[in-house]
Design a protein that fits this description.
Blueprint lengths: L1 H11 L4 H13 L6 E8 L2 E2 L5 E4 L3 H12 L3 E5 L2 E2 L1 H6 L7 E12 L6 H10 L7 E4 L3 E13 L2 H17 L10 E3 L4 E2 L7 E2 L1 E5 L3 E2 L1 H7 L5 H11 L20 H9 L5 H4 L3 H14 L4 H10 L4 H5 L4 H17 L2
Parallel strand pairs: 8-13
Antiparallel strand pairs: 1-2, 1-3, 1-4, 4-9, 5-6, 6-8, 7-8, 7-12, 10-11
């Protein structure tokens, strides 16, 4: 009923079909009455900071207008978790500045499936939980599982909620997910290839809602500390053969860690870390604790000065990196 009334209001206000669709999308995702939605645009993989915006969840008209204006020429993303007032004031989207989560979500990349988009589509169609919302991102699918009640986020709840997101992503063969994740706004364009942009299309938009406790029962979910301890002891990291370049500023890690990644063991870091191995361990531990996996870690070590030792090892680099990741997981699994 709510979704119908939203569409009716949109039609009376003279919105076009894309505006109506995006309005309905945001209305379903964000039924809360307080907080801010972050819009974060990129141009050729670089953040366009002057266009970044925090818009009140109550101001859906402005949210739709700004998102579609950005999306006409920029890769335009939104923060899935509702941002707090402090996030808006600080222009910072780290996990400690998140207020609510109104949906579980997953990000499927066609490259991770042997049959590409068809493989990803088949995974979604055969999954035992039906997504409320499906968006074709141009090179994969974004899935949303709307919640009956928003989950209020606080320091004590972040790890548990992220463990649930990771369980969902693993079952779907999706990319690593963080609570501070940004995903593409539908009815915009994916400009990853500027010579062949792809539309970001809505595939399904339905007011299907889940109880978070029933999702915990349906997924292989346990507290993060339990899963870390088990995986650290029994499994070896799996590093992908190839990775894509990564935008360091988009990672939700501390500024100190970003600086260490950018410059490696130089300057003040020579005093903090006795060896390059300890620098590497600090970065890997930070990335893992923020919810990133092997794919992001390898990309960082391939692309930035922090990876000097990794790259020097040549064909043995992946073995060194896998060992370092396992050590970091064992460290994080300690009670």
């Amino acid at each position: 009923m709510g979704a119908v009334s939203v569409e009716g209001r949109a039609q009376r206000s003279g919105m076009n079909s894309h505006q109506r669709e995006v309005r309905k999308f945001f209305e379903l995702l964000f039924p809360v009455k307080r907080g801010w939605i972050e819009l974060r645009p990129f141009l050729a993989g670089e953040p366009v900071r002057e266009e970044r915006a925090w818009i009140s969840v109550k101001d859906k008209s402005n949210l739709v207008q700004r998102a579609l204006e950005m999306g006409s020429w920029l890769d335009t993303y939104f923060g899935v978790a509702v941002r707090s007032r402090e996030s808006k004031q600080r222009h910072n989207a780290q996990k400690k500045y998140l207020s609510f989560l109104t949906t579980l979500f997953a990000d499927l990349d066609a490259k991770d499936f042997s049959k590409g988009m068809d493989g990803a589509r088949g995974k979604v169609e055969n999954f035992h939980l039906k997504p409320s919302v499906i968006v074709n991102s141009g090179h994969g699918f974004h899935l949303y599982f709307l919640l009956n009640e928003p989950v209020e986020l606080g320091e004590s709840r972040v790890r548990g909620v992220e463990a649930l997101l990771k369980a969902l992503g693993q079952e779907l063969n999706g990319d690593s997910i963080s609570l501070a994740q940004i995903l593409r706004v539908p009815a915009t364009c994916n400009w990853k290839d500027p010579f062949a942009p792809r539309p970001v299309r809505m595939v399904k938009l339905e007011d299907r809602r889940y109880d978070i406790d029933s999702l915990k029962e349906a997924l292989d979910w346990r507290e993060e500390s339990e899963k870390l301890a088990e995986s650290a002891k029994t499994s070896s990291p799996h590093l992908p053969e190839s990775t894509e370049s990564i935008e360091l500023d988009s990672l939700e890690i501390s500024q100190r860690m970003k600086q260490l990644i950018r410059q490696g063991r130089e300057g003040k870091f020579k005093e903090s870390y006795p060896s390059r191995s300890e620098c590497d361990q600090a970065v890997i531990t930070s990335l893992l604790s923020s919810g990133y996996g092997e794919k992001v870690i390898k990309s960082v070590f391939e692309s930035f000065p922090i990876g000097e030792k990794y790259r020097e090892k040549g064909k043995h680099g992946d073995k060194y990196l896998a060992h370092s990741i396992k050590r970091a997981r064992l460290y994080l699994a300690k009670p």
